[in-house]
Amino acid sequence: MSAAEVADHYNNVRQAGIQDRKESRIFFMRNMNNWIKSQLINDAMKLVNENGVKSPVVLDIACGKGGDLRKWDITGAKHVVMADVADVSIQQAEERYKTMHKYPHDIFGAQFIVADCTKENLDDKIEIKEPFDLVSCQFAMHYSFVDEDSARTFLKNAVGKLKLGGVFIGTLPDADRIVWAVRNGTEGKFANDVCKITYEKVDELSEGNVPLFGAKFHFSLDEQVNCPEFLAYFSLVKHLLEEHDMELLFVHNFAEAITNWLVPGRRLLESMKGLETFPNRNLSGKTDEEYLEAKAKIDSLGDNVPKFVGTLSKSEWEAICMYLVFGFRKKKTTEKNLESEAPEIKKVTPVPLNEDTDKTAEKNEERIEEKEENPSHC
Ligand SMILES: C[S@@+](CC[C@H](N)C(=O)[O-])C[C@H]1O[C@@H](n2cnc3c(N)ncnc32)[C@H](O)[C@@H]1O
């Protein structure tokens, strides 16, 4: 699978209309993914602010159609470089940027670059001379793990121009979790109502045989045609990034990240419609098994409490648990690295609805208009 084929795939992904997205079986999961990115960027900005930077220079590497442009606006970015191998996606990102309400006044500067970040030197194309304060790579880095050279080039492009103390954040499939799922499935396949994961070479799945690079799998969500992806073991990602003086700040499976962000990010999660109300007459999952946790939560609620919870169907939750979030920082000194802990998969936590709004919600969250036209996972 060459980067050109990846580009071809993403260039041809149809832009779903608002109505299509609302009717999608994974409507809430997509919104949840989008909320996770918002929370991650929010946390990264706190670290960037600690460096004394209020208006960061940002690189959004493998930015797709620019689904995070609004988030960059909210961070108060000074300049954002958006790079992707898919030219049509970059064109759409640039068009979106131009329709943003403040354009061309009072909005961050931006550069849109078409580049295969596994082969080309991005630095040759970047116009701004300042180093980056923040780099974001959402749902994309693993494509570069097709082979070692590609992964190394991609990571160099990602963090090579990051300033000392600068932050690198991202999301990617959790290789351990995926291998676990396909090993426990049938003939290298894991499937539920919303996602299907197939590991291509089943004989590689025996203990110790999954290669570090080129471990190809197919991940299809909501029956969308997918393009092949590659496992990126987090310990390997960490190792490769350490060669660029990057130190690990955190890594969490999505389940763990959601639990951590539920209190500070609850208001935003509700406004972004990241949870489905249970019970309701038009649930996206069609069997009782999809909502056993939510049902148990409802049954445990005392009297005089509204009998509604916010939840995700079991299948969406299983799919979301296939991903992790991470944050690294370029070392300022020779501080000792923080060690990553093995991510533990928690159960879906249904959230009682109609309670007082969380007071600690970030003021930025109120400003997000949830009209995102391209929520991830794309
Ligand atoms: C799942 S999409 C994520 C898009 C965006 N980051 C988001 O969160 O919505 C993966 C993106 O990675 C891009 N990509 C894959 N391989 C790439 C490469 N070699 N160089 C640059 N971009 C690449 C694809 O074109 C696609 O836009």
The kinds of small molecule bound in this structure are: S-adenosylmethionine
Number of domains: 2
Q: Based on CA inertia axes, which overall geometry fits? A: globular
Q: Using the CA coordinates, give the radius of gyration.
A: 20 Å
Domain mRNA cap 0 methyltransferase: 24-331
Family: Belongs to the class I-like SAM-binding methyltransferase superfamily. mRNA cap 0 methyltransferase family.
EC number: 2.1.1.56
Enzyme class: transferase
Description:
- By secondary structure, this protein is α/β, with parallel strands linked by helices.
- It folds into two domains: 3-173 and 225-275 and 323-330, Rossmann fold (3-Layer(aba) Sandwich); 276-311, no CATH class.
- The protein contains 13 helices and 14 strands.
- The chain has helices at 3-11, 18-23, 27-50, 69-75, 87-99, 148-159, 175-183, 234-242, 254-261, 266-271, 292-300, 314-320, 363-367, and strands spanning 57-61, 79-84, 109-114, 132-138, 162-173, 189-191, 195-199, 216-221, 229-230, 246-253, 276-278, 309-311, 323-330, 351-352.
- A seven-stranded mixed sheet has the order 3-2-1-4-5-13-10.
- β2 (79-84), α5 and β3 form a beta-alpha-beta unit.
- The two termini are 18 Å apart.
- 46% of the residues are buried.
- Mean pLDDT is 89; it is low at 335-343 and 354-378.
- The site of S-adenosylmethionine has 23 residues, from α1.
